[in-house]
Amino acid sequence: MSPADTPSNPTTLNATSPAGPASPPPAPSPVAARASVRSATHTVIIPSYNTGPKVYDTVRAARAQWAPVWVVVDGSTDGTAEGLAQLAADDPDLRLIVLPQNQGKGAAVLAALEAARAQGYTHALTMDSDGQHPADLIRTFMESSLTHIDAMVLGQPVFDASAPLLRVRGRRISNGWTDLETLGAGIGDSLYGFRVYPIAELIGVMRHQPWMRRFDFDTEAVVRLAWAGVAPINRAAPVKYLSAEEGGVSHFHYGRDNALLTWMHTRLVIEFLLRLPLLLRQRLLRHAPFQYLPRSRPRRA
After folding, report:
1. Dihedral of CA 3/5/9/15: which sign?
2. What are 223-278's pLDDT values in tens digits?
3. How far apart are CA 210 and CA 2, in angstroms?
4. CA-CA distance, 245 to 255, in Å (whole number)?
5. Sign, CA torsion 131/136/138/140
6. Residues 176-180: what's their mean pLDDT?
7. How many CB atoms lie within 10 A of CB 156?
8. Strand 94-99's sheet: what is its strand order?
9. How confident is the model over 113-131, as pLDDT tens digits?
Protein backbone atom coordinates (compact mmCIF):
# COMPACT_ATOMS: atom_id res chain seq x y z
CA MET A 1 0.00 0.00 0.00
CA SER A 2 1.44 3.34 -0.99
CA PRO A 3 1.98 6.30 1.39
CA ALA A 4 -0.88 8.07 -0.41
CA ASP A 5 -3.21 5.29 0.69
CA THR A 6 -2.58 5.38 4.44
CA PRO A 7 -2.04 8.40 6.72
CA SER A 8 1.42 8.36 8.33
CA ASN A 9 1.18 7.39 12.00
CA PRO A 10 -2.00 9.26 12.95
CA THR A 11 -2.29 9.97 16.66
CA THR A 12 -5.66 9.81 18.37
CA LEU A 13 -5.57 12.19 21.29
CA ASN A 14 -7.32 12.08 24.62
CA ALA A 15 -6.95 13.84 27.92
CA THR A 16 -3.65 12.15 28.71
CA SER A 17 -1.93 12.34 25.34
CA PRO A 18 -1.85 15.90 24.00
CA ALA A 19 0.40 16.61 21.05
CA GLY A 20 1.33 19.67 19.09
CA PRO A 21 4.06 22.24 18.54
CA ALA A 22 6.09 23.57 21.43
CA SER A 23 4.58 27.05 21.33
CA PRO A 24 1.13 27.07 22.99
CA PRO A 25 -1.87 28.33 21.00
CA PRO A 26 -4.34 30.92 22.23
CA ALA A 27 -6.25 29.17 24.99
CA PRO A 28 -9.68 28.14 23.62
CA SER A 29 -12.72 28.66 25.77
CA PRO A 30 -14.55 25.44 26.64
CA VAL A 31 -17.55 24.21 24.69
CA ALA A 32 -20.39 26.29 26.12
CA ALA A 33 -23.30 24.26 24.75
CA ARG A 34 -23.26 20.58 23.91
CA ALA A 35 -25.67 18.82 21.63
CA SER A 36 -28.66 17.08 23.11
CA VAL A 37 -28.58 14.75 20.08
CA ARG A 38 -26.02 11.97 20.28
CA SER A 39 -26.05 9.57 17.36
CA ALA A 40 -24.81 6.00 17.25
CA THR A 41 -24.67 6.01 13.42
CA HIS A 42 -23.93 9.56 12.20
CA THR A 43 -20.92 11.66 13.11
CA VAL A 44 -19.31 14.95 12.09
CA ILE A 45 -15.78 15.16 10.66
CA ILE A 46 -13.82 18.43 10.57
CA PRO A 47 -10.40 18.34 8.82
CA SER A 48 -8.19 21.26 9.80
CA TYR A 49 -4.93 22.71 8.54
CA ASN A 50 -3.49 25.96 9.93
CA THR A 51 -6.82 27.74 10.35
CA GLY A 52 -5.79 29.37 13.62
CA PRO A 53 -8.28 30.10 16.42
CA LYS A 54 -11.20 29.97 13.96
CA VAL A 55 -11.17 26.17 14.29
CA TYR A 56 -12.20 26.51 17.94
CA ASP A 57 -15.31 28.48 16.95
CA THR A 58 -16.14 25.88 14.30
CA VAL A 59 -15.75 22.98 16.73
CA ARG A 60 -17.85 24.64 19.41
CA ALA A 61 -20.59 25.40 16.86
CA ALA A 62 -20.57 21.80 15.61
CA ARG A 63 -20.67 20.35 19.12
CA ALA A 64 -23.63 22.56 19.97
CA GLN A 65 -25.52 20.77 17.19
CA TRP A 66 -24.26 17.18 17.21
CA ALA A 67 -22.32 14.44 18.93
CA PRO A 68 -19.87 12.98 18.33
CA VAL A 69 -17.51 15.23 16.39
CA TRP A 70 -14.13 14.16 15.02
CA VAL A 71 -11.44 16.76 14.29
CA VAL A 72 -8.39 15.85 12.22
CA VAL A 73 -5.38 18.15 12.57
CA ASP A 74 -3.63 17.67 9.23
CA GLY A 75 -0.04 18.52 10.13
CA SER A 76 -0.90 22.01 11.36
CA THR A 77 1.95 24.16 12.66
CA ASP A 78 -0.20 26.90 14.22
CA GLY A 79 -0.49 25.32 17.67
CA THR A 80 -4.16 24.39 17.36
CA ALA A 81 -3.50 20.68 17.98
CA GLU A 82 -2.71 21.49 21.59
CA GLY A 83 -5.70 23.80 21.94
CA LEU A 84 -8.04 21.18 20.48
CA ALA A 85 -6.58 18.61 22.87
CA GLN A 86 -7.60 20.91 25.72
CA LEU A 87 -11.17 20.98 24.40
CA ALA A 88 -11.24 17.21 23.89
CA ALA A 89 -9.96 16.59 27.42
CA ASP A 90 -13.18 18.09 28.80
CA ASP A 91 -15.54 16.66 26.18
CA PRO A 92 -15.86 12.89 25.67
CA ASP A 93 -17.82 13.44 22.44
CA LEU A 94 -15.00 15.42 20.82
CA ARG A 95 -12.44 13.07 19.27
CA LEU A 96 -9.11 14.32 17.95
CA ILE A 97 -6.71 12.80 15.42
CA VAL A 98 -3.36 14.47 14.73
CA LEU A 99 -1.44 13.66 11.54
CA PRO A 100 2.28 14.41 11.90
CA GLN A 101 2.56 15.87 8.38
CA ASN A 102 0.17 17.67 6.06
CA GLN A 103 -1.37 15.06 3.75
CA GLY A 104 -4.34 16.92 2.28
CA LYS A 105 -8.04 17.20 3.00
CA GLY A 106 -8.97 13.84 1.52
CA ALA A 107 -6.32 11.99 3.52
CA ALA A 108 -7.44 13.73 6.71
CA VAL A 109 -11.08 12.83 6.09
CA LEU A 110 -10.10 9.24 5.32
CA ALA A 111 -8.27 8.92 8.65
CA ALA A 112 -11.42 9.98 10.51
CA LEU A 113 -13.69 7.81 8.36
CA GLU A 114 -11.72 4.71 9.23
CA ALA A 115 -11.65 5.58 12.92
CA ALA A 116 -15.41 6.23 12.90
CA ARG A 117 -16.20 3.02 11.02
CA ALA A 118 -14.14 1.06 13.55
CA GLN A 119 -16.52 2.38 16.22
CA GLY A 120 -19.63 1.41 14.28
CA TYR A 121 -20.59 4.70 12.58
CA THR A 122 -22.19 4.45 9.15
CA HIS A 123 -22.43 8.08 7.94
CA ALA A 124 -20.33 11.20 8.33
CA LEU A 125 -20.99 14.87 7.71
CA THR A 126 -17.86 16.70 6.59
CA MET A 127 -17.40 20.43 7.12
CA ASP A 128 -14.47 22.82 6.81
CA SER A 129 -12.78 24.23 9.88
CA ASP A 130 -12.48 27.81 8.62
CA GLY A 131 -16.00 29.01 9.43
CA GLN A 132 -17.39 28.95 5.88
CA HIS A 133 -19.92 26.18 6.49
CA PRO A 134 -23.21 26.54 8.43
CA ALA A 135 -23.01 24.45 11.59
CA ASP A 136 -26.63 25.30 12.37
CA LEU A 137 -27.68 23.09 9.43
CA ILE A 138 -25.94 19.97 10.72
CA ARG A 139 -29.14 18.51 12.18
CA THR A 140 -31.12 19.28 9.01
CA PHE A 141 -28.58 17.47 6.85
CA MET A 142 -28.41 14.52 9.25
CA GLU A 143 -32.21 14.24 9.19
CA SER A 144 -32.11 14.16 5.39
CA SER A 145 -29.53 11.40 5.55
CA LEU A 146 -31.65 9.37 7.96
CA THR A 147 -34.61 9.76 5.59
CA HIS A 148 -32.53 8.75 2.53
CA ILE A 149 -30.09 6.37 4.18
CA ASP A 150 -28.82 5.07 0.82
CA ALA A 151 -27.92 8.55 -0.48
CA MET A 152 -25.29 11.24 -0.04
CA VAL A 153 -26.67 14.58 1.12
CA LEU A 154 -24.88 17.41 -0.67
CA GLY A 155 -24.81 21.06 0.24
CA GLN A 156 -25.73 23.39 -2.61
CA PRO A 157 -24.06 26.72 -1.81
CA VAL A 158 -25.99 29.94 -1.48
CA PHE A 159 -23.44 32.72 -1.92
CA ASP A 160 -23.54 36.18 -0.41
CA ALA A 161 -21.59 39.30 -1.33
CA SER A 162 -18.43 37.94 0.32
CA ALA A 163 -17.95 35.27 -2.37
CA PRO A 164 -15.15 36.03 -4.87
CA LEU A 165 -16.78 36.34 -8.30
CA LEU A 166 -13.95 34.44 -10.00
CA ARG A 167 -14.49 31.42 -7.77
CA VAL A 168 -18.28 31.50 -8.12
CA ARG A 169 -17.99 31.51 -11.91
CA GLY A 170 -15.10 29.08 -11.98
CA ARG A 171 -16.98 26.37 -10.10
CA ARG A 172 -19.55 26.29 -12.91
CA ILE A 173 -16.91 24.67 -15.09
CA SER A 174 -16.28 21.89 -12.58
CA ASN A 175 -20.03 21.45 -12.07
CA GLY A 176 -20.52 21.10 -15.83
CA TRP A 177 -17.88 18.41 -16.11
CA THR A 178 -19.32 16.60 -13.08
CA ASP A 179 -22.77 16.60 -14.64
CA LEU A 180 -21.32 15.03 -17.77
CA GLU A 181 -19.24 12.44 -15.88
CA THR A 182 -22.28 11.26 -13.93
CA LEU A 183 -24.68 11.44 -16.91
CA GLY A 184 -26.80 14.02 -15.13
CA ALA A 185 -27.22 12.12 -11.86
CA GLY A 186 -28.32 15.35 -10.17
CA ILE A 187 -25.25 16.60 -8.31
CA GLY A 188 -26.08 20.22 -7.53
CA ASP A 189 -22.55 21.34 -6.69
CA SER A 190 -19.34 19.39 -7.04
CA LEU A 191 -17.08 21.46 -4.77
CA TYR A 192 -19.03 22.41 -1.66
CA GLY A 193 -17.68 20.23 1.15
CA PHE A 194 -20.63 20.45 3.57
CA ARG A 195 -22.03 16.95 2.98
CA VAL A 196 -23.16 13.69 4.52
CA TYR A 197 -21.44 10.61 3.08
CA PRO A 198 -22.06 6.89 3.63
CA ILE A 199 -18.81 5.86 5.28
CA ALA A 200 -18.30 2.35 3.92
CA GLU A 201 -18.99 3.37 0.34
CA LEU A 202 -16.67 6.39 0.51
CA ILE A 203 -13.82 4.37 2.02
CA GLY A 204 -14.39 1.78 -0.69
CA VAL A 205 -13.97 4.20 -3.59
CA MET A 206 -10.95 5.88 -1.96
CA ARG A 207 -9.13 2.64 -1.26
CA HIS A 208 -9.36 1.50 -4.90
CA GLN A 209 -7.23 4.35 -6.27
CA PRO A 210 -4.52 6.76 -5.05
CA TRP A 211 -6.30 10.03 -5.85
CA MET A 212 -8.82 12.08 -3.81
CA ARG A 213 -6.26 12.95 -1.14
CA ARG A 214 -6.04 16.73 -1.59
CA PHE A 215 -8.15 19.46 -3.23
CA ASP A 216 -9.53 16.90 -5.68
CA PHE A 217 -11.33 15.08 -2.84
CA ASP A 218 -14.72 16.81 -2.84
CA THR A 219 -15.40 16.55 -6.58
CA GLU A 220 -14.00 13.09 -7.21
CA ALA A 221 -15.81 11.72 -4.17
CA VAL A 222 -19.27 12.59 -5.51
CA VAL A 223 -18.49 11.35 -9.02
CA ARG A 224 -17.16 8.01 -7.86
CA LEU A 225 -19.92 7.54 -5.31
CA ALA A 226 -22.49 8.19 -8.05
CA TRP A 227 -20.77 5.59 -10.20
CA ALA A 228 -20.99 3.23 -7.22
CA GLY A 229 -24.77 3.75 -7.08
CA VAL A 230 -25.01 6.35 -4.30
CA ALA A 231 -27.64 8.90 -5.29
CA PRO A 232 -27.29 12.61 -4.47
CA ILE A 233 -29.81 14.58 -2.41
CA ASN A 234 -29.21 18.35 -2.63
CA ARG A 235 -29.91 20.78 0.18
CA ALA A 236 -29.35 24.54 0.03
CA ALA A 237 -26.73 25.84 2.46
CA PRO A 238 -25.21 29.32 2.81
CA VAL A 239 -21.46 29.80 2.46
CA LYS A 240 -19.53 32.76 3.76
CA TYR A 241 -16.02 33.78 2.72
CA LEU A 242 -14.49 35.39 5.81
CA SER A 243 -12.07 38.28 5.49
CA ALA A 244 -8.66 38.24 7.16
CA GLU A 245 -10.04 40.63 9.78
CA GLU A 246 -12.77 38.08 10.55
CA GLY A 247 -10.20 35.31 10.96
CA GLY A 248 -10.64 33.86 7.48
CA VAL A 249 -7.86 31.64 6.12
CA SER A 250 -7.64 30.21 2.60
CA HIS A 251 -5.20 27.60 1.32
CA PHE A 252 -6.64 27.65 -2.21
CA HIS A 253 -4.04 28.34 -4.93
CA TYR A 254 -5.56 29.15 -8.31
CA GLY A 255 -2.73 27.74 -10.43
CA ARG A 256 -1.90 24.60 -8.47
CA ASP A 257 -5.45 23.60 -7.53
CA ASN A 258 -6.99 24.34 -10.93
CA ALA A 259 -4.26 22.23 -12.52
CA LEU A 260 -5.16 19.43 -10.10
CA LEU A 261 -8.84 19.74 -11.01
CA THR A 262 -8.03 19.71 -14.74
CA TRP A 263 -6.02 16.50 -14.36
CA MET A 264 -8.80 15.01 -12.23
CA HIS A 265 -11.54 15.74 -14.78
CA THR A 266 -9.34 14.38 -17.58
CA ARG A 267 -9.08 11.08 -15.73
CA LEU A 268 -12.77 11.02 -14.86
CA VAL A 269 -13.93 11.75 -18.42
CA ILE A 270 -11.82 8.89 -19.79
CA GLU A 271 -13.27 6.53 -17.19
CA PHE A 272 -16.77 7.91 -17.83
CA LEU A 273 -16.52 6.92 -21.50
CA LEU A 274 -15.70 3.36 -20.44
CA ARG A 275 -18.65 3.34 -18.04
CA LEU A 276 -21.09 5.04 -20.44
CA PRO A 277 -23.03 1.91 -21.58
CA LEU A 278 -23.72 0.90 -17.98
CA LEU A 279 -24.66 4.45 -16.95
CA LEU A 280 -27.07 4.72 -19.88
CA ARG A 281 -28.77 1.50 -18.83
CA GLN A 282 -28.97 2.60 -15.18
CA ARG A 283 -30.48 5.95 -16.15
CA LEU A 284 -32.99 4.37 -18.54
CA LEU A 285 -34.18 1.95 -15.83
CA ARG A 286 -33.91 4.62 -13.10
CA HIS A 287 -31.58 2.45 -11.09
CA ALA A 288 -29.18 3.98 -8.57
CA PRO A 289 -27.89 6.68 -8.67
CA PHE A 290 -30.76 7.99 -10.80
CA GLN A 291 -33.72 6.89 -8.65
CA TYR A 292 -34.35 10.30 -7.09
CA LEU A 293 -34.32 12.31 -10.31
CA PRO A 294 -37.70 13.96 -11.03
CA ARG A 295 -39.69 12.24 -13.69
CA SER A 296 -40.34 14.29 -16.79
CA ARG A 297 -43.87 15.57 -17.14
CA PRO A 298 -45.90 14.56 -20.20
CA ARG A 299 -46.24 17.28 -22.81
CA ARG A 300 -49.58 18.98 -23.15
CA ALA A 301 -51.39 18.68 -26.45
Report:
1. positive
2. 999 999 999 999 999 988 765 655 556 655 556 666 888 999 999 999 999 999 99
3. 8
4. 25
5. negative
6. 96
7. 15
8. 11-13, 94-99, 69-74, 42-48, 123-126, 195-198, 151-159, 231-239
9. 999 999 999 999 999 999 8
